[in-house]
Structures are given as C-alpha cells and as structure tokens.
Automatic annotation (TrEMBL):
InterPro entries per UniProt: Acyl-CoA_dehydrogenase, Acyl-CoA_Oxase/DH_mid-dom, Acyl-CoA_Oxase/DH_mid-dom_sf, AcylCo_DH-like_C, AcylCo_DH/oxidase_C, AcylCoA_DH/ox_N, AcylCoA_DH/ox_N_sf, AcylCoA_DH/oxidase_NM_dom_sf
GO cellular component, as recorded: cytoplasm
UniProt KW Signal keyword: no
ATP-binding among keywords: no
Organism the protein comes from: Bailinhaonella thermotolerans
Coiled coil ranges: none
Domain Acyl-CoA oxidase/dehydrogenase middle: 136-233
Protein name as annotated: Acyl-CoA dehydrogenase family protein
Keywords: FAD, Flavoprotein, Oxidoreductase
Cofactor(s) needed: FAD
C-alpha cells in the first residue's frame, strides 16, 4: 500500500470511481450547501438540514452504498467501505456523517436487517435506507459503558409486550431520530447461558413514556447526541427485534468489523490534520523563510506521516483479513488502540506546529484535536483495548 495523502485506487476501478465522485460531492455540492447555511462543527441544526443530504447522497449512490443490491447498495467489501469512510473523515465537512449513513442511516441499521421481521423491515428499517426515517442506537448508560451488563434499563413483561424503564446516554443521532434500537435487560428472564437475558427493541421516540433530551455536550462541541429516558414506556410484541436473549449480540453487532470500521474515519481526520499542517508549514513565514525549512518542523511532520502510514497499513491489513473470511479479533483491538493513539499524536503535533493559530477556537486543527482526543475513549478506551489484546494473546497460548 503506497503512501499518499490522496489514494487513487487504480487497482480497483469501482472504488476509484466511487472515491472520485465522493470527493467531488464533498468538496463541491456539500461544501456549498454547508457554506450557504453557515454551518460549523458546533452549529445546532435540525432534521430539515439533514434530510436533503440523505436524499441527495442516496441519489448519488452513497447513502447505503455498502448494502447488498437488493437494498439499493453495491455490496461493498469491508476494505472498499473503509476507503470511503476515510475520505469522509478527511473531507472536513460538517455533515460528513450523513453522507454514507453513519448519522442514523443505513450504516446504523445494516447489521440488524437479518433480525427483522417483514413488518419491521417495511415499517422501520427500509425507510431508513431510503432516507425517509432515521434511527439512533441506545446501549450505553451512565454506569454501563464498557461493562454493558451493568445496564439498569429494564423491560418488564406486560401481556404480549413489555414496559421499559431506564435512562440511555450518548445516543448518536438521537436529536434527529424517529426510533431507537434500544437494548434492555428483561426482568425475570434467563438466557441460554444461565445469565439474565437482554433484548433489543424498536422504540418509537414519540411513544408515551419516552423522552428525548439533549445530551451533555462533548468536548468536540457537536450537538448530535441525546439521552433517551423511558418511564414505563410500552412496546408491543412487534417491536421486539430478534429474540429475547439476543439483545447483547444485536447491540454489539459485528463487533470485530465495527471496531475496524471505526478506524478509517479517524485515519481520515488524521490525514486532514497532516495535510493542513504541511500546507501551513509551506506558507507560514518565520525568520525570513517558510516554516517548512526548519529541520525541527520537518522531523515532526515526518513522524506524523510515518505514524499515519503505519496506522493505515495496520487497519487495511485487518480489513483484508476480514474480507477473506477471517476473524481478526486481536488485530481489531490492536488497530483501534494504535489508530486512536497515533491519530491523537498527529493532531497534537498539528496544533503545536500551528502555534497560536492552532489554539484558537474555530480553527480546524483545534477541532480535529478535540475530536481525535475523544476517540481514545469512545467505542472502548485504549485501556480496554489493551485488556482485550492481552486476553486474546493468553487465550491463544492456551489453545
């Protein structure tokens, strides 16, 4: 995999075409749309701003592009999808997560389609794929992050249905969603493993007893998450996704694949930070010449580029293994750890090289710094990844 900040994918004509058209849309039409609305990464915006992006992205073939042809996609490999997600991360666009469907769209529902009944497909999931509805995913609670079994949200059987009470946090796309794929423990029910059973429910967010509340604003400053509060909220039998006892499997989804697929977007953000820094060093005049002529700056940028190349190579190697039918569990944990730590170091150096210009609120590298700092915690902290890597190594030794 040759090093470049603008990959060409000449060995894959389909991907080369997709990436080219995606870049054109991100840098052209979408950039103009955001500029016309005066959007920044910390803007508050509503469904009316997002729906045109969902619809236009679907018209262009990006929204749900990873899905099989029967659902309007192109059946992309994991590696191909990752390349598109990297371009999204590298674009710097405010609404980037709405283009492929990360923000409550097809990338949220794709992994649960196989659990859905025909009625659930028609009522909930296919409208999401078409850009007509949006969903959020509600698993995390204040006291249940990495330890998901510590959740207290409980579904109590009531006739053929259930009444759910609990408080979910960090539901991404919650402010714009019509329904939540929500995981709860089921009172008085034991699963096949002898432990308390969990279930996944399709909860309409306008149901009696369900309240969507603004979440705490993360350090990125984005307003894209909600708390979902349930107080004796009734869900009928037709809203059970899968079976009782499958909740954690559905909630954690394609764990290895998802862990690897978080990395390309972050790599794209790191690539953006590196590109901005190179351009700044070329144009910033210090002591009678460009900043880039200073050896100390050259060395910093060389380290940034080397780290990016190493992290990207690791990630795409893991994705290639996944595409080949393998199960790169340890590698996925390693990629999440290395990408998170390396991307943040790149962002930190980007701020350092930009000097005061990189410290100003609203500076793009300052935003990237905050966003990449979050990834060291989100979707499993670096410490959790290390625990899992060690576990895989010891498990392998025993096997």
């Amino acid at each position: 995999m040759p090093f470049t900040l603008t990959p060409t994918y000449d060995d894959n004509p389909r991907l080369r075409d997709l990436v080219g058209r995606l870049r054109d849309y991100l840098d052209g039409e979408l950039a103009e749309y955001e500029a016309r609305l005066g959007l920044t990464h910390e803007s508050r915006y509503g469904r009316d701003v997002l729906e045109p992006v969902w619809k236009r992205s679907r018209e262009l073939g990006f929204y749900g592009v990873h899905l099989p042809p029967e659902h309007g996609g192109q059946g992309l490999t994991f590696t191909e999808l990752a390349a598109l997600k990297e371009e999204i991360g590298a674009s710097g666009r405010v609404l980037q997560l709405s283009v492929l469907g990360d923000m409550g769209g097809p990338l949220r529902v794709g992994s649960v389609l196989r659990y859905a009944t025909p009625d659930q497909l028609d009522r909930y999931l296919l409208p999401v794929i078409r850009g007509e509805r949006a969903c959020c995913f509600s698993l995390t609670e204040t006291g249940a992050g990495s330890d998901v079994r510590a959740m207290t949200t409980t579904a109590t059987p009531d006739g053929d249905g259930w009444r759910i009470t609990g408080h979910k946090v960090f539901s991404t796309a919650g402010p714009f969603a019509d329904f939540s794929i929500l995981i709860a423990r089921v009172a008085g029910t034991v699963g096949k493993d002898g432990k308390e059973a969990y279930a996944a429910f399709l909860v309409d967010l306008d149901s009696p007893g369900c309240t969507v509340r603004d979440a705490q604003t993360p350090m990125s400053g984005q307003h894209i998450e909600s708390d979902i509060i349930l107080d004796d909220c009734y869900v009928g039998p037709g809203q059970l996704l899968g079976e009782v006892g499958e909740g954690l499997r559905i909630g954690l989804g394609r764990v290895t694949a998802n862990r690897l697929l978080h990395c390309p977007t972050v790599l794209g953000m790191a690539r953006r930070a590196l590109g901005l820094t190179i351009e700044y060093a070329r144009t910033r005049e210090v002591f009678g010449g460009p900043l880039a002529t200073l050896q100390s700056i050259q060395h910093k940028i060389a380290d940034m580029a080397t780290g990016y190349y190493a992290a990207r190579s690791m990630t795409y190697d893991g994705l290639a293994e996944l595409d080949a039918g393998g199960r790169p569990r340890a590698e996925a944990f390693m990629c999440k750890l290395f990408v998170a730590e390396t991307a943040f170091r790149i962002a930190d150096e980007a701020v350092q090289i930009h000097g005061k210009a990189g410290l100003v609120r609203g500076s793009e590298v300052e935003f990237l710094f905050r966003g990449l700092r979050m990834f060291r915690v989100l979707t499993g902290s670096s410490e959790i990844q290390k625990n899992a890597i060690a576990y895989q190594l010891f498990l392998g030794d025993q096997g």
